[in-house]
Amino acid sequence: MNRLQGKYVLITGASQGLGFELAIAFARAGAAGIAIVARNKALLDVARVRIQEVAPIRVLAIAADVSQAQDIERVVATTLNEFGGRIDILVNNASTIGPSPMPFLLDYPLEDFRNVLNTNLIAPFLLIKKVLPAMIENGGSIINVTSDAGITGYPGWGAYGISKFGLEGLSQTWAAELEESNVRVNWVDPGNMNTAMHRAAEPLEDPTQWANPEDVTEIFVYLASDESKDVNGQRFHAQVEEELSQAA
């Protein structure tokens, strides 16, 4: 119940889908405060109320576009100011799929390609860079959300897949460079989930065959907690870990 007691959390892409379910799970695990970030303020405000119904904790709802460097500056500054200079857990969850249906690379619009990379790859780089000074002082956990499209180049997955390839490399490099610190970096592939983004990416598939986001949160809670304080530089598949946990 109190696996995250005293921890302060920042989650991007947290107004719905996996990010929202992670905020709920972290609140249930006893987090002291959670900052949720997304572009849509109305959805964020609804999410904030729902999280506080689960646990009476401090929830910051910060409307921001993480593809914009100035918004990232504001998000980190606001969170540190409101949480007494503490960010113990950073979850880089925000992603964009790009144009839907997704075009082949030959037809991919340049501005859309840049926007996907800015959101899915550059934003995690900047967020980690900005939170590290506070994290190094107190220790912390960084969790990046990846995809199987980041290890296999699927036709038609264009900039999204390429951004996740980059995120995997970014995660490995940060983990190696922080090996001697109290900050750990791991990354999680949540698998196929029934989310708005995945439905847009594969509109002809049956989303009822995919996992619900709330069913894949356990590995994230583990990585956020002190139970994983010696785990660094590892890739996890949330649905496989969940199956192993149930089997045990």
TrEMBL record:
GO terms assigned for molecular function: oxidoreductase activity, acting on the CH-OH group of donors, NAD or NADP as acceptor
Entry-linked InterPro entries:
NAD(P)-bd_dom_sf, Sc_DH/Rdtase_CS, SDR_fam
Q: Which PROSITE patterns would you find in this protein's record? A: ADH_SHORT (PS00061)
Q: Which domain of life is it from?
A: Bacteria
Transmembrane regions listed in the UniProt entry: none
Q: Which UniProt keywords apply?
A: Oxidoreductase
Give one Pfam family.
adh_short
Q: Its family?
A: Belongs to the short-chain dehydrogenases/reductases (SDR) family.
User: Sorted alphabetically, which PANTHER family does this protein's record hold?
Assistant: SHORT-CHAIN DEHYDROGENASES/REDUCTASES FAMILY MEMBER
Q: This chain belongs to which protein, by name? A: NAD(P)-dependent oxidoreductase
